[in-house]
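Hi Prof. W.,

I finally got the Sinapoylglucose:choline sinapoyltransferase prediction working! I wasn't sure whether to trim anything, so I left the full sequence exactly as given:
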Amino acid sequence: MRNLYFLVLFPLSILTSIHHLADASLHVKYLPGLEGPLPFELETGYVSVGETGDVELFYYFVKSERNPQKDPLMIWLTGGPGCSSICGLLFANGPLAFKGDEYNGTLPPLELTSFSWTKVANILYLESPAGSGYSYAKTRRAAETSDTKQIHQIDQFLRSWFVDHPEFISNPFYVGGDSYSGKIVPGVVQQISLGNEKGLTPLINIQGYVLGNPAARTNLESNHRVTFAHRMGLISDELHESLESNCGGKFFNVDPSNAKCSNGLQAYHQCISEIYIEQILLPNCKVDYVLPDIPQNLPNIRTSRRELKEFSGNDPSSLPPPNCFTYRYFLSAFWANDENVRRALGVKKGFEKWSRCNTQNIPYKYDIQNAIPYHVNNSRKGFRSLIYSGDHDMMVPFSSTEAWIKSLNYSIVDDWRPWMMTSNQVAGYTRTYANKMTFATIKGGGHTAEYNPDQCSLMFKRWIDGESL
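And this is what came out:
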């Protein structure tokens, strides 16, 4: 917990020198790491939320490259809770990505993507809650947050943002996110709807929501990992049958006196111990790397892999090899902590170290155990929804998502079928329900859209334009 003060709060000495800038925004023309001007419109800024305005939420706003005046507007929430929205902007569905070149001591270079969802929609990438990305709280009390507090603050953020951006009030509005945001997104949709009904202004033209590999109910996803492992051939028929028989279908918080179940789970964990559960086909590389003493002006240094040890605190042999899928996370720590990058983005001076996922240092209360009732309420109000699952994600298995969707008991409008990238290339499988909910799998996909961005981009374009997958 040593870094809590720096990751979530500004030092008091810095607070006294910062003027309150509610809804301060910056139009970004250039970004370090990318040659030339940005070929799309990017705005960044902070919006003050919370009971006393002591929480500053940072956002990136990318205008649609097609028709920003008429195209839908979507707010994108990254999971965690506590992960930066750079995960969306630079990894999953944004217009930029890291080149992936081996780190050589200079600023990691960026490149344009072909799969950005901003080709057909305006997207607000929000860093929520405080402590995520460049967002922060001014006091320790304001830093304390929860699932439900996030929902209220995101609604507050949006209504404040729309006041400063009235030209987008009439655009169809959607809420999107992935992973743990499955607990938050449907709640935000409901909160926006309730606020509109109460006459809160500005009214938000909410139309629906998009969720990728979403968490839905405590222990639901964990319970389905055993079945997923069996369906994927990671455990034997005999072990699966033994677990089902001896554990009663529950594979968490097992009674220690149930030796047969405990022994079976031990065998199960041995089978999957070297599996990268976010995409079971990929090498099992470390996800994040602790870089405690990153220089703040990377373009002024040139560093070999061995010299990295001096400021990273890591044995060079433990640094990720460039062929790891997670190498981009390693690069993002250097890019997002560079002083020139922060200046270009308008990050407030004095902000301490950026972390891709600050999940351990935010005082967070997990107070939504079951998000399924939110889906029920949103369906009753006629909101559209797209729920998609990478079919090789073991973190939130597609089978767990199928299970809670089926529990809604809505009739099927378009039954299970392949959806296609081209006339002869299957991209995944889909089913549509009477409550305007579409479920789709991403063939070969992982925990987020970044694993198969081309498939996810095509899926989103068709759905947001009202077309059948």
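The two ends are 46 Å apart (CA to CA). Does that look reasonable to you?

Thanks,
D.
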